[in-house]
Write a structure and sequence with these properties.
heterodimer, A: 420 residues, alpha+beta, five-stranded mixed sheet, two-stranded antiparallel ribbon, 5 helices, 11% strand, rod-shaped, B: 146 residues, alpha/beta, five-stranded parallel sheet, 33% helix, globular
Chain lengths: 420, 146
Amino acid sequence: MLKKKSVGGQKPVLVLPALNGKQDQLAADLISADKKLAYQKEEKAKRAAELIVANRELVFQNREKEKRADELIIANKELAYQNQEKEKRAKELIIANKELAIQNEEKEKRARELIIANKELEFQNREKEKRADELFMANKELAFQNLEKEKRADELIIANKELLFQIEEKGKRAEELIIAMRELEYQTVEKEKGEVANKELEAFSYSVSHDLRAPLRHIGGFVNLLLRNNSSQLDESGLRYLNIISESYIEMGNLIDALLTFSRLSRAGLQRTRINSNEMVARVLKTFNDETVGRKVEINVADLPDIMGDETLINQVWVNLISNALKYSRKKETAKIDIGGKTEMGTTIFYIRDNGAGFDMKYADKLFGVFQRLHKTRDFEGIGIGLANVNRIVMRHGGTCWAKGEVGKGATFYFSKPAD
Amino acid sequence: MHAEVKKILIVDDSPKDVELAITALREKNLANEVIVAEDGEEALDYLYRRGSFENYEKGNPAVILLDIKMPKMNGIELLKQIRTDPELQLIPVIMLTSSREEKDLVECYRLGANSYVVKPVDISQFIDSIKAVGQYWAIINVVPVV
């Protein structure tokens, strides 16, 4: 049989039933159980004693705890008070905090404003520096301008004096102009007179060609009739006289022709065109080929500049000059003729040089006169009109003629023309 | 050979030039009759058979030798007159000039002159001019001068 036995709150001890034949074992077990119970009793007494002690301790502790509780109450009160104080302080701090926060914000705002203001000030500083620099420069400029103005003032004083002088000069000039105008009026009248004179000259030329020629023609015509029809009635000297009259008739005819040509050159209008001088001179030289047959002639032509001029008249100039050069060099074993020209400083100058008879420079001014000759007809034929025509043509083109020479060594003839 | 030998009219105020011209013509047996007028008006009198020429034989001359410079009506004026008259305008006119450079020569050609001869009349030049106007045979003298 199983039986649970609970003693004094102790753990149940399992008492096993004595097995068949095993009664001794049981008895032993019971003894052991008793012993155990006795031990337990002792333990319980010990325990009770301990509990008393413990109780006392607890009472003491209780009292201590009460004392502590009182102290705690006081301390609590103190704490509560302190709490309240702290709360009050906290509230004040919150307020103060808020105040500080506001102040912070304000300060931040202020700081930001100050930054901006700083920046503004910096900018203004820089601007002021710049302005200062500018002012410095402006000052320098003003100083310079002041100097300039002083100079200018001085100059103006001089200029004023100059103007005064000029006004005086203008007054003088005005008087001169009045005189010049009168002169011009006079010249206009003179020019009209000149035109009249020109017409008279034309009439004169016409008259020469007709009226002077008529008696000459009659002399020639009747002398020829006399020679043809009546020569048998004349002796040798009579025939010689008639031949002389006949030759003189031809000579005078040539003189009249020459004079007419010269007069025409003075009057004819100029037909200006571009003249290729190289081609013109080459063409003119070609026309003299026949005349130089059997002669030794060296002709050098340099490159010649083109000019503007009357082709017919300028051609005549070259014909006359080349003809002269060939004529007066024909007694030389070898005739040497150089032709050249160049344009310099607004003037074209041509020259033709020969190694012929030359001339004495003291008669140079006679070279270009009408019917002026420096050589005997016996030596060199001619009537002295060629160079006069050259001179007239060149003058009509606004140029001049001149010559250099030495007797027996040759001559150089120059003619100039304003470049176009 | 032409049956009728026409006349030559010389219009020139210089008798010496006229004499030289006629002599030259006669020497070459040209022109059996030469009429001379001393200026343009006299020439017109002959051409229209009036005044002192009233009784002259009718008919135009074979050729007119015309000097330019003459008193009263000059050669140019006469030439104009001749070229505007239908009866006269076909007559060949040869101008007599003092030189080749005569400035009026151009105008004479413009007005219808056929040719020109430089005075004194050079006969070969004259013959060339006469041949040029087609009147050479008309003025050959039928009766040779002895």
